[in-house]
Amino acid sequence: MLTPVTDAFAADLRARLPAACFRDLTPAYLEEPRGRYRGQGGLLLAPGTVEEVAEIVRACAAARVGVVPYGGGTGLVGGQVMDSGPAPVIVTLERMRAIRAVHPAENVLIAEAGAILAEVQDAAEAAGRLFPLSLASEGSARIGGVLSTNAGGVNVLRYGNARDLCLGIEAVLPDGSVLHGLKRLRKDNTGYDLRHLLIGAEGTLGIITAAALKLVPPPARTGAALLAVTDPQAALDLLALAQGRIGEGVSAFELIHRQGLDFLAETMPEIRQPWAEPPEWCVLIDLGLGAGQDPGAALEGLFAEAAGAGLVSDGLIAQSEAQRAAFWALRESLPLANRKIGAISSHDISVPLSAIPDFIACAGSALAALGRFRVNCFGHVGDGNLHYNVFPMPGETRADHEDKRAAIKRCVHDLVHALGGSVSAEHGVGRLKVEDLERYGDPARLAAMRAIKTALDPAGIMNPGAVLA
Amino acid sequence: MLTPVTDAFAADLRARLPAACFRDLTPAYLEEPRGRYRGQGGLLLAPGTVEEVAEIVRACAAARVGVVPYGGGTGLVGGQVMDSGPAPVIVTLERMRAIRAVHPAENVLIAEAGAILAEVQDAAEAAGRLFPLSLASEGSARIGGVLSTNAGGVNVLRYGNARDLCLGIEAVLPDGSVLHGLKRLRKDNTGYDLRHLLIGAEGTLGIITAAALKLVPPPARTGAALLAVTDPQAALDLLALAQGRIGEGVSAFELIHRQGLDFLAETMPEIRQPWAEPPEWCVLIDLGLGAGQDPGAALEGLFAEAAGAGLVSDGLIAQSEAQRAAFWALRESLPLANRKIGAISSHDISVPLSAIPDFIACAGSALAALGRFRVNCFGHVGDGNLHYNVFPMPGETRADHEDKRAAIKRCVHDLVHALGGSVSAEHGVGRLKVEDLERYGDPARLAAMRAIKTALDPAGIMNPGAVLA
């Protein structure tokens, strides 16, 4: 059983930690972007060193006080706020924000967990390198949270998820011991890979305090195109064609449905739309090529072949970096437009690539049996990852359908599961999907997860209630 | 405490498993390539299905009999032979050899653990795809072993280690439960990543029975060059130059020392050497490019710039696929020449990329204090991974230096550790490096590894004596 933070516990910590570690617990630390969870009061601590993090965790382990690690607060599944149970210690990594080192010749950067993702990108760029992880919240998400949730984003197709961009971690384990694993190695086969165990564990197995991150040489030439595709299958065929012609040069491949463009027109009319009459489906292709290559010519060649094969009917190829940025601004504005419309239920799902057309078709029919909705289906189709968000019809509000939310979610998730997919492709489990994990998770896997959790955190102090009930 | 296989135990299994599962325990299953370990007798089982593997493991767990998983037998650290303790069950995966499915549109292939690596490569090629894992023993190594040891090889620079090429696994856990994790997903953030925990665990946490493997579109154009470099630092500078100019198109970047070419000339004079007077250091660069690109031109451009910068003094660019194959045959013959000469001590190490020149210089001086030796230092320098092998002087044999072997190993490994490196870059821990892991491993990491091992395998039946003492 956990115990709440008490005055005596706080006083004891005050005697052991510098004053700078203590911060006022403002409401921001108890909220999350979708407003579904409300954290409860407790003690907010902002350690400045890994030793201070270890001191905090040791004290919490001894007193059986819960520890909630807090990054940038951008998580969408409630992993960062503990909404029930004894009042915990909230550990924000915001003071551990240093870029400890950049090794451009090795393509490695060492960042503390509190570094903002955009700061890491900037530090890489200043060294003539690229840190390719890119996602909508990069201006506030912190590296520790990005790793703890194994964040994805738009460049996974080429460069992988957060875990694929991490060579080593420093972390404080649930007993307060420090895992010194900031290796700058591409190959190290000496035992169990605890790095990959902590990455994606959402703070339930320890607190990541720093990471050795992979950098890449930035592409010399970039390009982008918005191509209208016949249907989702044509999008997949176009992807295969693009990868066959251009290889790893295809950095991103995003699917956009007309519904998203309509939402944009409705909520943000200031954003210039590429088409007067939007196609039902289009894709945004982004290229990053070497110095001797011509992205425009590559995209024109791709378009010609795809048009000949009946995959694409229309398209725009960015003629400048500004146009490429405009294409991306369009794509990155979709989530904001969604928020302005107000989804009844949002789903971050993945299915095997070839099951995408089936998923889209079947989800549409299954939802129709539950009522009339608008669906904005978009996302990282190159990774099999779609954001499938369900909205009320014009004139209705999400509140009108609150009673249908559970059924909609269940309907979408059941279909995803039946197709061999994942009900959380890139956002994690947090608190929102604990029941889904129970329902859809492999029993042997769940049992092994519980055994590992109990072995490393016998008192259950680390992020109580997240991932595993 | 484990118990040995008894006649009663074997009889019980005979009643529960088809006769095809029982094979004669021939000496091959008790040997390993370097001849340092000799396995002991026990019971050899060749299950044909994952359910039969589970049945075996459940029986062993109940009776506390050790289980040694056996792949292709090519491991170089004794992970596949149990040389002491109660006689175990040896589980060979050779009957589970099917390619269960190929999904070219998804770039995914499902292979059973007993599939030979070369068979997987062939199945991918037949579907117009590439499975890029490539290593010297690919003609006999099996996928289960390749994953269990997180094997590396020559294409890690571009495509990653075995773990980076695996999307999901099916495995039998130490309690005999079956982990159904053959997901074909690029993104799945639903809880702890048990796939990465079992990959590289060398059979100590369960038996991998099948895997969903990543394929890639094969490069349309390939090319290779052998370039004489001034010194190891020049090799690194050349790598950075190549990656800056050609990006991911650089598939492999291998360092070769003159000693290796001399060994080749001595032991395999039939192999044609590229130089009459070999340079002290050279690198083999391999390119895989898109359809519109010209590997020859890319290599010529690279050579010109590198020569201008004083990095390379001489070089050969393959003018045909046959010449490229000849360059690779030269590289791949180095280990065989080494075996013919007979190393006193072999080391599979990695250090941060920028520490490579220091490592080579310091290791040379440190060894000189122990005696006069020949050193063949070669390998995957693009990954920071060197095979640093120490040989007797001409006229001497390895037996003359048997007493110095421990000191040589310690000397090399101490230096690697001091430089932040790994004493097992791609071969694993097995039984050979258990003590090294104890000596150099992070205490918190070792404690967490032990806790996980105990949690998942409380009786310690899985590959006893490997990885953890």
UniProtKB/TrEMBL annotation, chains A, B:
InterPro entries: FAD-bd_oxidored_4_C, FAD-bd_PCMH, FAD-bd_PCMH-like_sf, FAD-bd_PCMH_sub1, FAD-bd_PCMH_sub2, FAD-linked_Oxase-like_C, FAD-oxidored/transferase_4, Oxid_FAD_bind_N
Annotated ranges, domain FAD-binding PCMH-type: 37-218
Pfam families, per the entry: FAD-oxidase_C, FAD_binding_4
GO function terms (MF aspect): catalytic activity; FAD binding
UniProt keyword annotation of Flavoprotein present: yes
Flavoprotein is among the record's keywords: yes
PROSITE patterns with a match to the protein in the record: FAD_PCMH (PS51387)
Cofactor entry: FAD
Gene Ontology process terms (BP): respiratory electron transport chain
Keywords: FAD, Flavoprotein
Family membership noted in the UniProt record: Belongs to the FAD-binding oxidoreductase/transferase type 4 family.
The protein's name: FAD-binding protein
Organism, scientific name: Rhodovulum strictum
